[in-house]
Amino acid sequence: MAAKMNPDLKKEREGASFDPEKITNLLYGGPDRVTSKRELESLALNDPDFQHEDLNFMSREQQYETQLKKSILVVQKQKELGIVDQMDLHSYSYNGVFQSMSGPFGLHTSMFLPTLRGQGTDEQKAKWLKMAEEYAIIGTYAQTEMGHGTFLRGLETTSTYDPQTQEFILNTPTLTGTKWWPGCLGKTSNYCVLMAQLYIHGKSYGPHPFMVQIRSLQDHKPLPGVTVGDIGPKFGYQGNDNGFLRFDNVRIPRDNMLMKYSRVEPDGTYVKPPSSKLAYGTMVRVRSMIVGEASESLSKAVTIAIRYSCVRRQSEMKPGHPEPQVLDYVTQQYKLFPFLAAAYAFVFASRTMIFVYFQSMAKISSGDITVLPELHALSSGLKSLSSWVMNAGIEECRMACGGHGYSHASGIPSIYMEHTPAATYEGENTVLMLQTARYLMKSYNQSMQGEKLADSVAYLSGVQPVPAAGRTRNVLDLGVLIEAYQHRAARLVHEAALQLRNERQAGKDQPDAWNAASVDLVKAAKAHSQYFVVKNFAGRLTDPALDSAAQAVLTRLCQLYALHGVVDNSGDFLEDDYLTGTDIRQARRHINALMAKLRPDAVALVDAFDFPDGILNSVLGRYDGNVYEHLLEWAKASPLNKTDVHESYHKYLKPFLEANRAKL
Ligand SMILES: CC/C=C\C/C=C\C/C=C\C/C=C\C/C=C\C/C=C\CC/C=C/C(=O)SCCNC(=O)CCNC(=O)[C@H](O)C(C)(C)COP(=O)(O)OP(=O)(O)OC[C@H]1O[C@@H](n2cnc3c(N)ncnc32)[C@H](O)[C@@H]1OP(=O)(O)O
Ligand SMILES: Cc1cc2nc3c(=O)[nH]c(=O)nc-3n(C[C@H](O)[C@H](O)[C@H](O)COP(=O)(O)OP(=O)(O)OC[C@H]3O[C@@H](n4cnc5c(N)ncnc54)[C@H](O)[C@@H]3O)c2cc1C
């Protein structure tokens, strides 16, 4: 018999002003997509082969083993089921089977295969791709070293060409040159794409990708000259064997260098790529995907916190009245609704990012590499902004769930632990924001020369005049808000450029001037990315998939997202009098009014994300809201409760207590 729905959640759903299915359809690309998503998720969630004890109750070794077993099963089952589409794989495997927790094949699919596809020649793909796609070999992406992650040109692992034997000799010349962090390297992978400094005839040509076998295909032992292992427990990522790797005079054939873009001829002649940054292509790809990871993780946390806030009743708002649902406290709404709005903003941004990525890659494949700088700038900015907001949002959601938020039963700590490194991996966020800033500075200078700019920065060409101080406007109007964000971004870019120039004029060389201006440069890059997100959100409101009720509620969310950003960064908007103090006061009032209007729709808005319970993996965020009975059930399953009296009682506590009693 189906469990009864918690009456508060039932009422919330009945009181919504719109049909969540309309928004679900928009989020996932139409009813057919939603149907297949649900089918695939349900197939994975109900498959007895994928059932196991809660990962939170397992040791790290057990977690690794469990995830490995599932990874193998998933490969087999995907094949049987004929799942090949990326979105379908995402539903079945990433969410359905793994609930977005990392596993030992993660890097094989997210970086090893894409690097082979993107950096290999046709002959190299013919040699390795099938083996990799069929999991005859398993690989990772080994780039970061103990001493260098950010500064790729500083990598120390060397790949020295020997024209006599037509081989590369791999070496780790220092301790800090030890590869450190690559996912799935420690115990799982038998191959890797190795990023190493290419040396030919004593000359360095910078980091290049090499296909390297590191373990025997017979007994999985490290090959001669290879030292490899697991780097130990981490903040999260327990199911993943992030590893270390060292080379001592390991020889690989010449054609193990991935040579789609740059080549080494048998005699040692180096053939340059059209752009040296093409070798960094896989990172750009994963950064583009991380915007999706961030939006999805934030959406999950917000779903849990909002549902629970409707089930949770606490305190007495009015004497003698029933305790209110905690979501009725406006302070609680102020914690959660801006992040609900942000989750939507980034889901839409991620869809655009993925579209731009594939569109740009099509151009790059046909030889047009002019799109690369814009793609790099956009993906760097959005990856950083979205993962920063995700981190802040998940933590806010955890605290908004009070004490229960701290328990693994809430599901929120796992989401945080697993996804917080998105701010670090694939390029540390500040470093990447500075890359976006670099592009903005270049574009700004080009606009000063009257050159035409790429679409995403075209607005820099016409930094608007500052409007007369004291002029107030309707800050609820999305057109006004988009212009305000555009103006702020253009002004901050302009000011960062001026600061750079001033530092130069004061006698600093370019790197020192850049460093001195870097706080403002990051601020400008963030403002540029925020402008993109606001404009992109507003652009989705007219999607024909929405009926008028769904459009109305999403418009409110978009207004809230934009207004909250204005209030949070009010100094930026006030500094040059673009907005007035009255505008900001109005913005605060509008936020309160919007939150009141959104309150009855909050549960329907998180339902529209369409995360089944198995994927949320949260006692607090259960669809039926039956939180308390399941909290007790969950705690009872904890390994410490397997016996009434733990064995440590006999070992330690009993003698201690008895000795103390004997002394009395
Ligand atoms: C289809 C799916 C369906 C639904 C989606 C929905 C949801 C999705 C949910 C989940 C998503 C699933 C998967 C993704 C999630 C997780 C990923 C999985 C695991 C992650 C594991 C982590 C792996 C790693 O971390 S690998 C290591 C990553 N390392 C880095 O990123 C290093 C960072 N450093 C650098 O990139 C560079 O060194 C640098 C800092 C950028 C500087 O480079 P360098 O010093 O060489 O260059 P200069 O500074 O001198 O600049 C020269 C010049 O080049 C430009 N430049 C630099 N990089 C690039 C580039 N990549 N492309 C283009 N141009 C570049 C730079 O700006 C300069 O330009 P100018 O001279 O013109 O100024
Ligand atoms: C869970 C996880 C999985 C990972 N998986 C992989 C993988 O599969 N393969 C792989 O190769 N790597 C992987 N990494 C490594 C990851 O890519 C790097 O840690 C990341 O790129 C950051 O580099 P770093 O550690 O050198 O940080 P650092 O660069 O040392 O950062 C430390 C601080 O210095 C600051 N800083 C550094 N340079 C600058 C600068 N130029 N300007 C201003 N500030 C600066 C940063 O902002 C930061 O605050 C993984 C890391 C994690 C945590």
TrEMBL record:
- Give start and end of each Acyl-CoA oxidase C-alpha1 domain: 280-441
Q: Which residue range or ranges hold the Acyl-coenzyme A oxidase N-terminal domain?
A: 19-138
Provide the primary localization.
other
Kindly list the GO CC terms recorded for this protein: peroxisome
Which cofactors are named for this entry?
FAD
Q: Where do the segments described as Disordered lie?
A: 1-24
Question: Where does the record place a coiled coil?
Answer: none
| Reactions catalysed, as given in the entry | octanoyl-CoA + O2 = (2E)-octenoyl-CoA + H2O2; hexanoyl-CoA + O2 = (2E)-hexenoyl-CoA + H2O2; octadecanoyl-CoA + O2 = (2E)-octadecenoyl-CoA + H2O2; decanoyl-CoA + O2 = (2E)-decenoyl-CoA + H2O2
Name recorded for this polypeptide = Acyl-coenzyme A oxidase
Where the record annotates domain Acyl-CoA oxidase C-terminal, the positions are: 478-657
**What residues does the Acyl-CoA oxidase/dehydrogenase middle domain cover?**
141-250
- Which residue intervals are annotated with compositional bias (Basic and acidic residues) in the record? 7-22
